[in-house]
Structures
1.
Amino acid sequence: MDNTVLRANSINKYFYQPEPFHVIKDISMEINKGEFVSLIGKSGSGKTTFLYVLSTLDTDYQGSLEINHKTLTGKQIDELAQFRNEHIGFVFQFHYLLPEFSSIKNVMIPAQKLKRYSVGEIEERAYQKLKMLDVHEQALKPAGKLSGGQQQRVAIARALINDPTVIMADEPTGNLDSRNTGEVIEVFKHISKDLNQTIIAVTHDKDFAKNTDRIIEMSDGVILKK
């Protein structure tokens, strides 16, 4: 049985302004189900650009991308948006929660867009995700009233609400203090090991990277080791 969740083949990416620049250079890689992978490298190494290609948010590239055994290269914008909502959960450095919405309402948003469950079922699923991340007691509190660590846990719950194929995280601990960073690392380890959740995270944090299953180091648009 093929355990591959994500397959990138000969990915090349160019920036054309202010002058042509080859930012991703013929990268091929595979990620398996349940792997917790970190993408590391100095600023300008291409790691965040590569993550955006892998997430289908950037479609201006050469090569091919497959997630959950579906080829996504060349698909229409609307089809990619639907695929992302169903198969990809996003966690960013800044949580991007709606501050006036309650925690549970924020978590429910992707599931409401997917329309796979009733509103009541979505609310129950959202509550269970918050409970799993130990922020269920904040379910009815406006997101803007939560601590930074609580907000990031709510953002992770939101990323999990549709049971995605893969979570893609861009500097998920970059805006947190050391205590909350440690807690978020443990959350990611838990959902990777206990839920068999695939995670790909861009990070500058060496402690975060050391806690992942595999470190992929990039430099000047190529992978040094994987």
2.
Amino acid sequence: MADVGEMYLVHTMLRREFSLLPDLIRGADRNDPKRRVLIGAHAQLVCQILRTHHEGEDLVLWPLLLERAEAEATEIVAVMGEQHQAIAAAHDEAVHRLGDWCRFGRDAEGFATVLDGLVWVLTEHTALEEKAVLPVAEKSR
């Protein structure tokens, strides 16, 4: 199983970094392409970390949890899968808008609003995962 201590660290980092992005984007001067590129590179990095983290859960954590703690895990793993889909949709929309904003500074508010939505679903998801999944994962080693 995953080291649940590291899962808490990753979740904390993801919540923190994604929660900072909307205000950074709203505050970036449209006429400052260097600042947009810097913020955009960071946004791209945390988006990739999120995608990789969830791919790892989907490929490794959920199957092992279902195998080792089937009765306790079945319902919550289904919920986690649904939440991963919602996060992926918000993530994909953010990534879609990222390049245009970085290059041209267009629709900063729309991009930031998409990120606000991503922060909301990510925060809800990680809180539930920490409450309902990680304790089961830890004792199912």
3.
Amino acid sequence: MDLNGKTILVTGASGALGSALTLALSAKGAKILGTATSNDSAAKIPNKAEVRLLLDFSEPESIQTLTDYLVAASPLDGIVNASGVVAFGPAGELSRETIARLASVNSSGPMQLLADLHGKLKESAEQGNQPFVLNITGVVAETPMPGMAAYSASKLSIHGFFTALAKEWRRDGIRVLSARPGHTETGLATRPIAGQAPAFPEGMSIEQVVNRMVAAIESDEKDLASTEF
């Protein structure tokens, strides 16, 4: 896939991986629409993004507002979901609020976004633009971790969705990838919504993970297991 001239939505473009992906994809000539959850975090989206938008996956109205705008106002050739939250601690100590937020931000929110934007991606396919969707799912979707049960479950959920979606949307000409890198030095583990991170070994660099994902998009790969990083 030639990324030059393609319009790509990067959710979570203010975060470590989202920012790096915004820069890497724009360097390939893509037009980036970047999202953040608030006006303050939107200021962290790299200037290479041509449009800054707000999106909070925990608020259905926010998803609706964004998708209404995109359906009406913009072509769309790709979606990269780099949004996510993490929580740690024993499953028996998880609050309802923590479980609900993990589920909405990591799985149900992205599911709704993709459902709402399917028509835009299908339009892109009909124009010969080879649209794609990539979700940064993580290795816990392959190996759920103790002390991260609800987080692992939220990632298993979106991975299952993507596995089925890849088969559904293939007939529409839309490529779907679930990327499952191992622990990466993004700083996310230092910002959990609950609990405290265990002592992880040193993870992969952001550059390594981003370069691999961009290469997969360009080379028309259809899955990115943890062993591919």
4.
Amino acid sequence: MRSYRQYCSLARALDVIGDRWTLLIVRELLLRGACRYTDLRDGLPGIATNLLADRLRELEDAGLVMREDAPPPIAATLFRLTARGEELESALHALARWGIPLMADDDAQDAFRGHWLTFPVDLYLADRTPDRAPITIELRTGEEPMHLETVDGAVKVRHGSAERPAAVLTGTPRQVLGVLTGMLDLADARAGGLRYDGEEKALRRIQPPSP
């Protein structure tokens, strides 16, 4: 691992987590918890197998990642963040917030995984009427369906389809994210191909308030 050789806390932090792919490995472990090697590789499209192994070893050496055996009957090694690694969560949220404006432009070739929606959902969405019965909104974008669930005033991302969703959004990741965060008007998104099934009040319940 190369070092900047500077007596500065930022430089010291970048000595540990500044290499390419490192923070995205941390992202996967923050969002998904303990992961098998194959799970990490699937959540990091484009990474070379040997590079992933190298980065995991470096993170282990730095005390940010640990290995553990999966409970029976699964015979696999799991990787999870240590308490020190989990301290990076606020830094990743800050970077994710900073990066939201950069998502205005997208490329159809860009990879996408549904659980990556967790950062913008955590940053922008909340249940505006938490005293009412919880609702779910299904999102059909990417490789697998996801759904949002209102929980104690917050909105959480869950894997899989919802049993009885209040609404269903079907479209590209950019359309779905834009509509959820209020950065893209629903009518404009529909004109661009997004499909919205359900009552619009379900969407308004979780969207950020209008400026």
